[in-house]
């Protein structure tokens, strides 16, 4: 079948809730993907950072196959022999005492919110059902009804009320706005250390540390959503490390499974995560032996291949070279590690047409919001491949 036939089938039978570029991918390896016509492209999106380890990483694939031959799912009604090893490896790598595995990022965010509320009632002593959680404008934490309740994106919200109460949204990047929003009923502040979907927005230096200090002073939990920024993407294991901030609850997902299988988790210490009692929360597939085997292999790749260090080094090179491009369309180039955004001027006509032109140059990138092109290749990319991409990106950014 040809590209056009796949697209028309998809449009005929599928819900229309995405606006993909018109490429139909049939296989991939490392940083390269191949469409059904056999054309080769550089992936500069990495499935929103779920593919930090690159496509179809051989050792993760091997772990998946081997586990799939033995045992895939027990449910948490019984114990399995992968979950304890996953817990230990994840906790040793991240420095947290405990973890709770789920599937999608959205579910991990929901889990963190439930834990914060439980802490508010059982430990902080807030009157039941009165807990408030502070979030930031421009956030992206997922698509459930509770999560879109505090989205500032009209399209994510407007047709989907009634909403979950108990959230309060303040300006991103302004620590004093957080301080001003705290009340005796505040349970937690939840932030992305860099807003990925929001357009690769980096808060001012010192923001995270200041918010964390405000939380500590007020007996409020600090929750970091590092589903996109974590696990090496921004040049450290976690973006919060840049400000020596250790969140009370850390949320991870995406690259936790190297793109093979949905695996997410929250991390916290015993006094907090120990609050969940049997029956408080759960998931049929969360912590399945297959998920755990895949996640263990994915973490091992991040560690063994020094993906965070690679990201720091190559990200700095990539961004330095991008900044040399002379183009009338560029407003700003920003990023950390290999999470890079090129913001175009409003008069450039939107980032979408540039992403379509990049696709013709065999580079896959996606616009985020109207005017930002995100470059976030798998962290296994090398300098030679970045050098291959740069003249192509330059050509596209210089088009009329
Ligand atoms: C992708 C993402 C989510 C949601 O994860 P899903 O797996 O799509 O449910 C939440 N938070 C952030 C920061 C993300 O990038």
Commentary on this structure:
With 400 residues, this protein is an alpha/beta fold. The protein has 2 domains: 3-56 and 306-397, Aspartate Aminotransferase, domain 1 (Alpha-Beta Complex); 58-304, Aspartate Aminotransferase, domain 2 (3-Layer(aba) Sandwich). It has 14 helices and 15 strands. It has helices at residues 3-13, 46-49, 58-70, 83-94, 105-124, 145-148, 154-157, 175-181, 207-217, 270-273, 289-304, 307-323, 351-360, 383-397; strands spanning 25-29, 32-35, 40-43, 98-102, 132-136, 167-170, 186-191, 221-225, 249-252, 264-268, 330-336, 339-344, 363-364, 366-368, 372-375. Strands 4-10-9-8-7-5-6 form a 7-stranded mixed beta sheet, with helices on both faces. A 4-stranded mixed beta sheet has the order 1-2-3-13. It has a 4-stranded antiparallel beta sheet with strand order 11-12-15-14, with helices on one face. The chain is globular and about 60 Å long. 48% of the residues are buried. The structure holds pyridoxal-5'-phosphate (PLP). Pyridoxal-5'-phosphate binds at residues 48, 104-106, 109, 140-142, 192, 196-197, 225, 227-228, 253.
